[in-house]
Structures are given as structure tokens and as C-alpha cells.
């Protein structure tokens, strides 16, 4: 059973590896895993018992693709080191446990601090990378008709939503470190802007007044912007809109409204 | 003049400690600060560092100290003053709801000002950083067994802070013992825990990101080389 899972994981991973090698080298951890697993299979034994349930998904674009709004050094350190550490730690915390998608760990994350911090960190960052795109691609996207309608209904207008989002992202509003989310309620008929501290997110029971399903999120930990913006967080926030891929946000929106569950992430 | 009581000793200190040719500028800045200070209970001002921005290199770079002091701490001071003005207005109007609503901003900006003021004062250049025999060493040994044991405890807990916050050595005035504590965000130690602050270590990412990137443990361990143990001892003696 374990061997079958390992083989299918190997096949899936090797497909990813091929397409990943076409992009800039963004993280060789999954390729290392493939080699390790492949060697184990070749040796005729099951892969070692260290949990490799989670991995840092490669970015869909090179590190410098979001320049000048988010700088390449930040993307590299943020992805490889910060996200990498969350993945290492959630793997440690889930060692020996049944492998489930990271999304499935979110609802009860408050029950175990490592899952809350590292599992949350993994989910949040995996969610974040995929909502971003290079500006020349992102600038051609916009909220769908359905999403626009719900934005207008919930906030009055897109600009009012944007202003509320930026206010929530201002220093002090979400405490020192945290995330700001645009999220749909469980019923799928209202949008809310929520700030959550540290690596919490609205999918976790007990964090907000109810469960909400994020469709767009922004990391306002200092590591997300410090190299380029230092203390100028508002400037980072207003520049970030330039690399938001609304096609992905629309996709998230359709999914959560239809299924009433959170968006799945890669890794 | 109560504002003057705070400023004059630090002016003298600045004048005595300043090695660079910027002394006339420093004195002029202090004079301007004295003139613009409101009467007691009025505006707070950014305190000058008791040393040059490069004084604790290579542990923390001049670049970090400059941004940390002149931007981050300065913003807390500015926003604290704004919040206090709003508080004054709300108190005058008897608007309890607004008073309560300002609680977060007060804790965040007031705490930020308190914490950073304490922080600058408990740092010094490497060659001035030394724990000598005295009440502090005795208290540390009594509370932790040894100075090394204390450092191990304080650094482990400071490193483990989730997100933004501070690591502290504080005096428990009820037990007389020194304790390690951590606080989230800019929550000030004494108001939050009752402990009297002796030594603070800022573990917000802005305190170390330029120099150490994500490697907070390296920063925390290095900071011990530039702790002004004299100041820490003075605080202990004053708090007892």
C-alpha cells in the first residue's frame, strides 16, 4: 500500500519536475525527494518513514517575475527559506500520521500549535504564490462579473473594498505579523475582509467569528516586504495589487461559492 | 520643567558619549526638542540613541539601527501622540466608546515607544558589554543557576516567539526573582505581566532582517555580545 502510494507520488512528482525544469530553478527539494524515493524503490524497499507529506510548491513564474512590485531577493528568500521552514516543520509535526492535503488540517489547526503555526504557514504561502502573476499578465485580468457583483454588494464598490483591505493591512491593524484576506462566507453570499495574526487563516475554527473561505490573501509579515520597502508597508500593499492575478481569484471565488469549502493548494 | 528633567541628563550623556563630529548637531536637536516639548503629559519625542548608529556593529548594522530608530520607533512616537490627542478629545467629551476603541492603538504605539526606548538603552558597543560581579550577577545566579543558563533560556524563548514580539528579562517584585518572559507585538512587559523590565530583545523581523534575513537564532545569540549589562543592573537595583 505504502509502495503503491510512493510510486504514484513519484510519477506525479516527475511530471511536475519536468515542467518545473522548464522554469527558473526555484527549489530543488521536490527533485531531491524524487531521487531519494526513486533510489529507495530501485533498492526494492519502501521509502524511509520520514514524513514527506508536504513540499514547497515551485512558483509558477521566475523569482524576478513580480519586479518591480515585489523584488526577486524577497521572492527567493520568502519562498525557499520562510515557506521552506514551515514545510520542514509541518512535516516534522505530522510524522507518522496519515497523509492528508494541507487544506484538511486547517479546520482543527488551533488544536495543535505546530499545525497552527507551520501548517498554517504552509497553506497560506502556497495559497499566496498562486494568486500572483507578472504584471503584464496580471494587468490583463480583472474580477469576474459575479465577483464584482458580490464585491459591490458587500462593500459598495471595488474601490471601497480596496480601501478597507488596505486599512486592514496597515501596521497595527493586524498586530505585528499576519495576513489580510478577502474571503467568502460559508453560505457563499457575502464577502468579508479579515485580518488574522501570525499564520492563522479564516479556515481555522476559532480564529474568526466563523469559518470564511479565502479567495485572495496578502502576507503582511515584515519578511514579505522588508528588503525593498523596509517600514513602508502601505507602499508594499498598494504595489501588490499590480501583481494580483484576478483569473485565479475568480477561479477561487467560483470554487468556494460552489463547494462551500476552502481552496486546495499545491504542495 | 518636567520634560526638561528627562532631556537634560540624556543631552549630557549624548555630549559625553558622542565620538563623532555630529555633536553640535546632536545638541542642537536636543535644544529644539526641549523647545517643542509640550507641558507635562504632552507630546512624546523620539529619544536619541546613547551612541552612534554604527556603535553595535557587526551585531546590528548601522543601516538597521538607522531605519529601526528613525523610522520604526519614530512612527510609534508619532502615532502615540496622535492617539493621545484622540484620547484627550474622547475623555473631554465623555465618549467612553471611543476611549475603549483607542485601546489597541494605545497599546500598540505606546508599547512600541516604551519597548524601543528600553531597548536602545540596554544595548552598547561590544567592548562596553560586560557582566561584572554585583547584584545583577547574584540575582541571575540565584534565579537561573548561572549566567549561561539564563542566556540559554532567554535566547530559546525569544527565538520561539511566533511572529512579532519581544523577549525579556524581568524582575518579579513579589518573589524577588528574575524571570524570562515574552510578549507579543508591542505589548509592554510591565503592563502585560507585572514584571519590571530589565533587558529587552526585539524579535520583530525589522530588528534583524537586513542583517540576518530569516535566521533569527543567529541574531538573538549575537545580541548578547552588545547588551549593556550596567544598565540592566541599574534597572534591577531601581526596581527592587
TrEMBL record, chain A:
The protein's matches in InterPro entries, at most eight in alphabetical order, are given as:
Mn/Fe_SOD (IPR001189), Mn/Fe_SOD_BS (IPR019833), Mn/Fe_SOD_C (IPR019832), Mn/Fe_SOD_N (IPR019831), Mn/Fe_SOD_N_sf (IPR036324), SOD_C_sf (IPR036314)
What region holds the Manganese/iron superoxide dismutase N-terminal domain? 54-132
Asked whether the keyword Zinc is assigned, the reply is: no
Q: Which UniProt keywords apply?
A: Iron, Metal-binding, Oxidoreductase, Signal
Presence of keyword Signal: yes
Per its UniProt record, what SUPFAM superfamilies does this chain match? Fe,Mn superoxide dismutase (SOD), C-terminal domain, Fe,Mn superoxide dismutase (SOD), N-terminal domain
Molecular-function annotations in GO: metal ion binding; superoxide dismutase activity
Where is each Manganese/iron superoxide dismutase C-terminal domain found? Answer: 143-252
Signal peptide (from-to)? 1-17
Kindly state one GO CC term assigned in the UniProt record: cytoplasm
Q: What family does this chain come from, according to its entry?
A: Belongs to the iron/manganese superoxide dismutase family.
This protein's name = Superoxide dismutase [Fe]
Tell me the organism. Chaetoceros tenuissimus
UniProtKB/TrEMBL annotation, chain B:
EC number(s) on record?
A: 1.15.1.1
Q: Name one Pfam family in it.
A: Sod_Fe_C
Among the entry's GO cellular component annotations, what is one? mitochondrion
EC primary class: oxidoreductase
Molecular function in Gene Ontology: manganese ion binding; superoxide dismutase activity
Which InterPro entries does its entry note?
Answer: Fe/Mn_Superoxide_Dismutase, Mn/Fe_SOD, Mn/Fe_SOD_BS, Mn/Fe_SOD_C, Mn/Fe_SOD_N, Mn/Fe_SOD_N_sf, SOD_C_sf
Under PROSITE patterns, the record lists: SOD_MN (PS00088)
What catalytic activity is recorded? 2 superoxide + 2 H(+) = H2O2 + O2
Residue span(s) of domain Manganese/iron superoxide dismutase C-terminal: 133-235
**Cofactors demanded by this protein:** Fe cation
Q: Which UniProt keywords apply?
A: Iron, Metal-binding, Oxidoreductase
What residues does Mn(2+) bind to?
68, 116, 202, 206
Please report the stretch or stretches of sequence annotated as the Manganese/iron superoxide dismutase N-terminal domain.
43-123
Q: Which residues form the signal peptide?
A: none
Its function, per the record, reads: Destroys radicals which are normally produced within the cells and which are toxic to biological systems.
So what family is this one in? Belongs to the iron/manganese superoxide dismutase family.
Q: Could you identify this protein by its name?
A: Superoxide dismutase
Q: What is the lineage of its organism?
A: Eukaryota, Sar, Stramenopiles, Ochrophyta, Bacillariophyta
